[in-house]
Write a structure and sequence with these properties.
By secondary structure, this protein is mainly α. It contains 21 helices and five strands.
């Protein structure tokens, strides 16, 4: 039974390198296709239930020997195998979705757009009537083609059955150790505690877009209005790309860092047709070949995205090269998302904004408040998504879930969503749990940085030395363990919301 597991561990680095290369080339607009089917066929042991069974046996033996490092390494591989079993089952549906989206035609006044183009343009469209047209067209397309999207979601249920679990949440909890019921309770508490502050600031930002626009229940706000408001387009003059990118590079230099981390981070910032609209990181080899892909873009949201992906890139580029392969390549995604969010949350730091963007005090105060609103809207949206996705991955992708999705998003955002997004606005492998735990961990990380290195930690080389020590561990620690280590207290999602509310109430 050890042979398939040995094969996985010996070939895993190559598989992940090839997968990241495919994802990089596709997302960077260098390849029109993402041929993962051929890659999966070349590594059949990764998606084999027999390999999962072998990992179960190996994990039991490692626990019996009281070998925590071996337990951690096998645990990470076991989670990956469960994911690949699901992805293999989902491949026909995923291919069908790609084909559907490639030939999609979303009406946009006198022209048509692909689904990807429509979704990319929607938050940046200044005219409300055209945003409504794009949202309605995209939502209707997704509803009419819900069969393919539903098949992809139902592959999760099939994976649970194949691997011997009563339902999908039980499978993910078993392989990740994340208590989804406890996290759902924390998400519900976070929604309750942040409701008043979020609703009040939402009313303010909607009036900035259109004087008569109001949140639900008394107003007519739609999800696309919230998306546009999160961009804070009235602040664009302060966030021109020709200013923000040099400002970020200046910051890195002040912190004693080289933007390319000694050649380990490879920056792709050329404008290119087919390139993803948002930045992303592709880890081909960790830590030696990390691709950071940027599409030239202005705006406060674009700066936040850039800082976020820099956090990912700098984490991956500083993982210990001598660490075991599993700890270099795998880990609790909540941890790397927390590092990325720590970088992104520099938008909440008035001294950072003044020093690197040269903003006056009044503008700085507005930016910090808007950044807190943006973060809180995302947090609330994901808090609502967790309970919905747990239901979806237990009951299946019937149209009954559309009402659940719409009800949850309506409550979280105080805006009307299009129910057609109910199978599209979903995180595979319950990744929503990673985001929520990441934001809880980021709250602990930032507090620790402030306590150790003061409010200008972001220009103190000693602060990055401390962070680099955490980065070097790779996947050795999970979010819960890391939070307890650096702060003495476990993760607490409501505290992440409370921090943002405190900023909004200043």
């Amino acid at each position: 039974m050890d042979r398939p597991l040995h094969s996985v561990r010996s070939r895993l680095d190559d598989f992940l390198a090839e997968l990241a290369t495919l994802q990089y080339r596709y997302g960077a607009g260098l390849s029109p296709d993402l041929p993962v089917a051929r890659l999966y066929a070349s590594f059949p042991e990764l998606s084999s239930p027999e390999t999962f069974a072998a990992a179960n046996e190996a994990l039991a033996r490692a626990r019996g020997k009281d070998d925590p490092v071996a337990v951690r390494r096998i645990t990470l591989v076991r989670e990956l195998i469960a994911t690949q079993v699901e992805e293999s089952l989902a491949l026909p549906a995923a291919d069908a979705v790609v084909a559907l989206e490639a030939r999609s035609h979303i009406p946009a006044d006198d022209t048509t757009l692909s689904l990807a183009q429509a979704l990319s343009q929607l938050p940046r469209e200044p005219h409300r009537s055209r945003r409504a047209l794009l949202e309605r067209g995209a939502g209707n397309f997704l509803w009419e083609n819900r069969g393919a999207y539903g098949d992809r979601r139902d592959a999760a249920l099939q994976a649970a059955e194949v691997l011997g679990f009563p339902n999908y949440p039980a499978l993910r909890q078993d392989v990740t150790g994340i208590d989804t019921a406890k996290l759902a309770e924390a998400a519900e508490e976070t929604l309750k505690r942040t409701e008043d502050a979020y609703r009040d600031v939402l009313a303010y930002v909607l009036r900035k877009l259109e004087p008569t626009l109001r949140p639900l229940p008394g107003g007519e706000a739609r999800r696309h209005d919230v998306q546009h408001a999160q961009r804070a387009p009235w602040m664009d003059a302060h966030f021109r790309r020709e200013d923000t990118v040099p400002a970020v590079m200046r910051w890195l230099s002040d912190w004693g860092l080289h933007p390319e981390a000694g050649g380990r981070i490879r920056l792709d910032d050329e404008a290119r047709p087919g390139k993803a609209s948002r930045p992303f990181v592709a880890a081909v080899r960790v830590p030696d070949e990390i691709h950071l892909v940027l599409q030239p873009r202005s705006g406060m949201d674009a700066l936040g995205d850039l800082l976020h992906e820099l956090g990912h890139a700098w984490h991956l580029a500083h993982v210990d090269a001598d660490a075991p392969m599993e700890l270099r390549r795998l880990g609790d995604a909540s941890v790397t998302e927390a590092y990325a969010s720590t970088f992104e949350r520099l938008l909440l730091s008035p001294p950072w904004l003044k020093r690197y963007l040269g903003l006056p005090s009044g503008t700085t105060k507005d930016v910090v408040r808007l950044a807190a609103f943006q973060a809180l809207a995302v947090l609330r949206r994901h808090c609502a998504k967790l309970s919905y996705e747990l239901s979806l991955s237990t009951k299946g992708a019937s149209t009954d879930r559309a009402d659940e999705y719409a009800d949850g998003q309506r409550r979280a955002l105080f805006a009307q969503p299009h129910p057609g997004f109910f199978l599209h606005d979903v995180d595979s492998q319950l990744y929503v749990t990673r985001y929520l735990r990441a934001w809880a961990l980021e709250t602990r990380l930032t507090a620790s940085l402030l306590e150790r290195f003061n409010e200008d930690f972001w220009r103190n080389p000693a602060a990055f030395t401390w962070l680099k020590g955490l980065f070097a561990r790779g996947g050795a620690a999970d979010a819960e363990g890391l939070a307890t280590e650096i702060s003495g207290t476990p993760l607490a999602l409501p505290e992440a919301g409370a921090r943002l509310v405190a900023i909004l109430n200043q």
